[in-house]
Amino acid sequence: MSSGQITPNDFELDQLITEEGNSEEHPTMKELNASITNSGEMKNIMWKDQKVKVYALNYKEVPLVKYQIVACMIMFLVFGFNDQATGSLLPTLTEHYKISTVKVSNIFLLQLFGYTLASLYNETLHRYIGMRGGMITATALCLVFFGILASKPRSFYVYMFCCLPLGLALGIVDSIANVFIGNLVIHKNEMMGIMHSVYGAAAMLTPPLVAHFVEWGHWSLFFLLPVITSFVGMCFIIPAFRFETEAKYDYVCAVAKENEHSDTPEDPDETKFLTLIKNPIILLNSIFLFIYLGAEISTGSWFFSFLLATKSTDKVAMSYIASAYWIGFTLGRLVLGFATDRFFSNQYKASRGYGFLTLFWYTIFVIVGAINYNSKLYFTGLFLVVFFCGFFMGPLFPNASIVTLQILPGNLHIPGISLAVAIGGCGGAALPYMVGVITHLIGIEWTPLLCWIMVAALTVVWASYPRYIKGHDEFL
């Protein structure tokens, strides 16, 4: 992780002073930190016998940061294609492999295991190969296993297995990109909104694209889109993240720990799972993202099947209705990402308002979804209702990440966000699976109500933040 708050420790500063022979008028750590943050300079610092290149995450001053941002955006396109692919392909997979929807839902479980691995080993991965290695590893996994899916595996078990490493890869990308964008010196809220809008745009395009590939008779070729996108992402990642080594990650964590806990004895276990999960902000963010991603992906994945089963069997027409959610989702992250700083005192209060509006529109969704009409007026109304569900739900994830980064100390950014995002990813896999099992038993027409329950739960969790997180009133 790069950070705008980078300073050498006291021992290194003494070394610099000794080398320069100026022990009377040397810069303080605060002044040196400010000089890095406010300049476009890249500075070399020796750390444990390795050269570490530090610079501010300011894309206006440091051109390299622009390419890092672009790389994150590209990989979020892949992320969006992946998350909506299963829901859009679900009817096709059941028909092609002659299996039940419950069996197809096992895809969500495999991705859950992948995300779980990401949550457990993201910190270790950074310690051994750095952010650079993490991004390259994740992108390579996407290239290989999306490539296998594009070849239309003969066995569904091969198809299903591919979702495990893809879950791992996207769990790594998710945590790295959120921490990186959340630590930008300028416009981090806007950039976070844009990055998550890119995800939404890919998810929005997936249903109609899949529908056309299915009509063409080559549904598996849809996966060439994430393959090509991953290749382009790799072309940016290798040069853009070349300085984000394991040594730099160790250095940034050490400095952040020293700056923020200078009077606290070192705790070697503070990045362990059980220690992290006891931190109130990490625990609440993990619970929130678990439910949030469950609600988001359940809506996106099962809405298309809900439409086909209860409204119309026209796959192409229903794919466009299903895209309403992702259109609203994308525009919400883009538009409200810019509106948050202008109309609210902080991200937490903005999301509290967005959360209640999301719950309101999901309530309307339950009511309208229960009505069975087959008219243009009805489908227009349903389109608008689902659009606003996505519009107000969209910014909740990026805002939650920013609030967490504001409260957490710097040395816990990667492990804390990685854990929360990965647990959230588990929710994005487990809860859609549960929706599939439940609707198989009671009927798919109950899908809107199940999604409403999840939205109500995440609204309650978000409202409880100030009660359990003390000493950060300026952010809450």
Can you tell me about this structure?
With 476 residues, this protein is mainly α. The chain folds into 2 domains: 10-54, no CATH class; 63-259 and 270-468, Growth Hormone, Chain: A (Up-down Bundle), CATH 1.20.1250. The chain has 18 helices and 2 strands. The protein has helices spanning 10-20, 29-37, 63-97, 101-104, 106-150, 156-182, 188-216, 224-240, 246-260, 273-277, 280-310, 315-343, 347-369, 376-393, 396-407, 413-442, 447-463, 465-468; strands spanning 43-47, 50-54. Strands 1-2 form a two-stranded antiparallel ribbon. Helix 3 (63-97) packs antiparallel against helix 6 (156-182), helix 12 runs parallel beside helix 14 (376-393) and helix 13 (347-369) runs antiparallel to helix 17 (447-463). The radius of gyration is 23 Å and the shape is globular. The two termini are 25 Å apart. 54% of the residues are buried. Keywords: Membrane, Transmembrane, Transmembrane helix, Transport.
Number of individual domains: 2
Please state the overall shape, judged from the principal axes of the Cα atoms: globular
Quaternary structure classification: single chain
Radius of gyration: 23 Å
Summary tags:
476 residues, mainly alpha, Growth Hormone, Chain: A, 2 domains, two-stranded antiparallel sheet, 18 helices, 2 strands, 76% helix, disordered N terminus
